[in-house]
Amino acid sequence: MPPEDRTILEGAMPEGKGGSGSVPADGSTIVEGTGGGAGDSTIIEGVQARAEASINLVEGGQFLEYTLQKPLQVTSGEADLWFIADTEGKEYVLKLYRFGIKPKKEIAEKIRTLGYEHVVTVEESGESSGRSYEVLEKIEHGDLDKYAGGKPLEEGQLKVVVEELGSAVAHMHEADIIHRDIKPANILVRTLDPLDLVMTDFGISSMSDVSLHMTSVNRTALYSAPEAINGVVAKGSDWWCVGVIILKLLQGKHPLEGMTEQAITFQLVTKGIEVPEEIGQDWQLLLKGLLTRDPDKRWAWGEVEQWLEGKQDIATHYEGDQKEEKQYDYRPYKLHGREIY
């Protein structure tokens, strides 16, 4: 049980603007969407100012019984992230959510059921001075981008990544969790030998109690699936992210690198991502399966597992192949007795 001055989270803020407070001129905070009906809001007089004043985030400062060491060099819109240590010197990561933002209760409970394998362990969670927090295990080896070092991975090494990442996504999906923001920064390296990859940052995750539903929550454009651009949430969207990550690790750079977000969006909804012809046939097969634009026909763990076993006769529905097949189906025009294609 936590100490008495902490409150274990009892509810989840709704997605969208209800999860982020707005501050009126009088200094009070309006947290929207917390009441029982549409448009309800709760006014908490002066809480934000008191919360910010009572938590002093400085190196060497204290948060509960932990000592603040240094901030993580990452940008997060939902939380402050700090390396911390307990009274015995054991190190963790503190995720201190912005005022008015709380982790989704149903997601947090589901993540706890996943256990130690494939996800960053939440050692403790609660509320302090009006702000939600999580104490997470410290991952020593950084994220997947750091592991790759900006260079193409050797194919044997990459197959280990495919197995680790694929099994992690399958593990989440078995618990009906759709991550929705899988990218190298959210894939951490727990151990190097053997390679152990774990998922983190479930801030916009959803429960898949229905196969598809709509949302407007932001995600990372470079790794977004085509259907996610239109607000559709599906398990297949996570597998698209896996495909993009594999292609990046295979080539050493993101296939859409240097494009604006608007150009990326247009590319995804009209053409998808091209699988390069110069890569090996086995990698083409995997990527065509994962980068199929139709989420219902996209590969998932079953097909990826077969690919890892060396099978090559696995059906794909990649649009690039379909276009090549269909170019010979056009009926010619007849002009002066000649057939014109």
Automatic annotation (TrEMBL):
Record-linked Pfam families: Pkinase
The organism of origin for this protein: marine metagenome
Chain residue ranges for the region called Disordered: 1-24
Domain Protein kinase: 52-308
GO MF, any single term: protein serine/threonine kinase activity
The protein's name: Protein kinase domain-containing protein
Keywords: ATP-binding, Kinase, Nucleotide-binding, Serine/threonine-protein kinase, Transferase
